[in-house]
Structure to design on (151 residues):
């Protein structure tokens, strides 16, 4: 955050674009802008995906074609978790479903977490907008992804 804040101080932008794919970074930057009362509009850049659902990233160039197809299961697993939550399963059950789904696909899961979009804390019964966050390794390449869930 120090580097981004220094950059903002030097450039003095009226707005800045950060991608939604790194949801934690985006949350922290928005929080910093609010806390420091910086007059900067933070614009959220959408996540772009290939035809199979893999989030586009410069890191994808390090993956074989087979690994790219396999990595697309990360997004499919996130969708399964979202569906389970919307069908009334508990957060714990739903995340466990996602962990099992990702782990079956030769993907080394780093983490799979669900947070309240407003504060990035673990959601409670009043949480309505959630983020499902994950990081995983495919062919030793670390990939991150996330999806929004409204309940």
């Amino acid at each position: 955050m120090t580097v981004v804040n220094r950059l903002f101080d030097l450039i003095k932008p009226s707005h800045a674009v950060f991608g939604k794919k790194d949801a934690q970074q985006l949350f922290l930057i928005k929080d910093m802008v609010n806390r420091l009362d910086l007059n900067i509009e933070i614009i959220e850049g959408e996540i772009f995906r290939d035809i199979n659902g893999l989030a586009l990233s410069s890191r994808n160039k390090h993956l074989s074609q087979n690994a790219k197809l396999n990595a697309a299961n990360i997004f499919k697993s996130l969708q399964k978790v979202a569906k389970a939550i919307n069908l009334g399963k508990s957060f714990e059950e739903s995340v466990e479903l996602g962990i099992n789904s990702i782990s079956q696909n030769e993907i080394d899961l780093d983490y799979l977490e669900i947070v309240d979009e407003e504060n990035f804390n673990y959601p409670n019964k009043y949480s309505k907008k959630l983020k499902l966050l994950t990081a995983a390794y495919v062919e030793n390449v670390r990939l991150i992804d996330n999806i929004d869930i409204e309940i």
